[in-house]
Amino acid sequence: MSKKLVAGNWKLNGSLDANARLLSALAALPGVEMAVCVPYPYLAQAGSALQGIGLGAQNVSEYTSGAYTGEVSASMLAEFGCSYTIVGHSERRALFAESDAVVGRKVLAAQAAGLVPIVCVGETLAEREAGQVMSVVGRQLEAVLDVTGADAMARIVVAYEPVWAIGSGLSATAAQVGDVHGGLRSWLRAHDVDADGVRILYGGSVKPENADELFAVKDVDGGLIGGASLVAEDFMAICRAAMVKQN
Ligand code: PGA
Asked: What is the pLDDT of residues 176-197, one digit of tens each?
């Protein structure tokens, strides 16, 4: 596997002033690929401030153009310098009713415009307690595979984000993460996807204090960082942890 990828997900946060301070404190590091996924209106600001750090969006339309008020297309994101977009974050699935099928179509739209989709999968606490983790994430991946096919699926990034760990301060344990990441890699392989080339990120309460341990887990190829990506020192510390952990 190549370098780890650490992507910040700013969510619905930021202002021109606060962003300027945060962006100026980020610096590309050797040995790790870094990206920040910012709200749409800040793409231009982030794009011109970042050097050697990838730019991403947090969502993308499944449509390319036309009468879809409020939507933003993948080619627009590409025009603004995005190389990534998050797709199917659990907040979008839960709060904006994005179905597995919609997520699949968004992945297709992103790839058609040359973006790398960071596809989020993950179970709720109730699903974990019912022993359904692999069936849930498998169903979420299946919807993507159905539209992309195995070859294009090898060019997505997967982010395993257990819903109960997001923003809760309660990260999954290294053992839990290892189990699911190994399971995801096997799922991909079993579906004829070139699984060794797919980066599988972990997301959910990653902090400087637990990044070392999480990035050392087999099959963890980086992280998707929410809250801690808004604090430059924390995001940089997490990126440094990824830099030294190549597995
Ligand atoms: P968190 O969010 O790091 O604040 O838990 C992760 C995410 O939602 O991508």
From this structure: 999 999 999 999 999 999 999 9
Residue 55 alpha carbon to ligand 1 centre in Å: 17
Element of type H or E holding 201: strand 200-203
How far, in Å, is the centroid of ligand 1 from the Cα of 73? 24
CATH classification at residue 190: 3.20.20.70
**By residue range, what is the domain housing residue 190?**
4-243
> Pairing relation of β-strands 54-57 and 32-37?
parallel
* Nearest-5° Cα angle at 230, 228 to 236: 65
Q: Which of 119, 205, 234 to mutate to test the pocket of ligand 1 (most atoms within 8 A of CB)?
A: 205
Return the pLDDT at 2: 77
| 225 strand-pairing partners | 8
Asked if residue 34 lies in contact with residue 26, where contact means CB atoms within 8 angstroms, the answer is: yes
CA dist 75 and 245 (Å) reads 34
List the one residue out of 201, 200, 209 whose CA is nearest residue 234.
209
pTM of the model: 0.97
Report the number of distinct structural domains present in the chain. Answer: 1
